[in-house]
Amino acid sequence: MPKLFTATAKELLLLKGDRSGLLVLFMMPALLVLIITLVQENVLELTGQCQARVALLDQDGGPLGAALSQALVAEGVELVRWDPQLKSPAKLESAVRAGRYQAGLVLSAGASVRLEQAAGQLFSASAGGLTPPPLQLTLFLDPGMMPAFRSALQGQLRLNLEAIALERKLEQLSARLGTLFAGKALPAGAALPAREELRQQLQRPLLQLEQPAPREQGELPPYNPVQQNVPAWALFGMFFTAIPIAGSLLEERKSGIWIRLATLPVSSLELLGGKLLAYLGVSCAQFALITLIGTLLFPALGLPAFTLSHNLPAVVLIVLSAGLAAAGFGLLLGMICTSYEQASTLGATGVVTAAALGGVMVPVYAMPLPMQQLSRISPLNWGLTAFNDLLSRGYSMTAIGDELGRLLSFFVLSLAVALLLARSRS
Questions:
Q1: Phi/psi of residue 88, each to 5°?
Q2: 6 in a domain, yes or no?
Q3: Could you report the per-residue pLDDT of 186-221, keeping only the tens digit for each?
Q4: Domain residue limits at 296
């Protein structure tokens, strides 16, 4: 055991001298988790959760514009109604196409009157069953908008217009029923429904979705990109330690230090174990740094704060298992490769590929089905699945046993192959 600690201290001293390598190991995942989370948060907002800017050119000045403005503002839309530069539909269209607004809506003069006349014709006896033509409102959309955001904004505007039209229909229907039953006796116990009561009856749902509470104990935070990205990019940084581990081994083999160390009364397991413990500590420090960024820095940038599970021992166990798997991969890489260039290329390619397959860059559920099946071979997918089960789904430690078993099996297999190669070269 003292020999193992001595080997670990030697690796830490060598690592301390490589300041550029330490900077890459800690700054790279920190910058990635910050940039990717900010980008994904913005993408989520652009697909329906952001405050859209809509310019309203109200040439009517009637109740229709007031009702539409009130409905849009109530739903979180940033409504611009009195822009002095938007005096005509042509100028409004130019402003929207230039990207100043996501959408522009034109209410022509007399729109409120025509809406009341059209609603009245629906229940008028003199209409003869003819359906009045709908009132046309001009809509301009920014051509640079994302398709999903464009569809969401169009749907939001249509729903608001339908709600306003329904109000007018109810007013005309109530007035028509009052005219029909005026001066006539109603059946016993019957009464003419009031406008508010009729509206409530029409809005009463027949089907309703129910979202059950999680079965596991403990309150879970709502899903957000932070809960996905903090453990994902922490794992990415942890597995990137494989490259400096491999580089350290290759440097010792190339300079002959490995042969001299092998002549000492130190086993190959102790030599590799020293590197293993040193870089396991680096992996734990990486995860701690990313966690602090998610917990303290993200709220200052307007992002949700990263929330650790109430089951902290399970979180520590995942971090240790992933750190061991990453260190084992680095030891294997250092014993298989023959040059640092080969190890860095193979290591970087392998880690990035495993991250892409494992759901670090794109969630696994958003991949095609063949890619979802292929993602099961990625060690980063095992670690990320364990984190998601624990932090987002609220599962217990027993539910993540399979993922932990895969990570530890990968570590044992990598260490065994590295030991065999080390003993053969000694």
A1: -150, 155
A2: yes
A3: 455 545 455 565 555 454 443 434 444 444 444 555
A4: 2-44+221-425
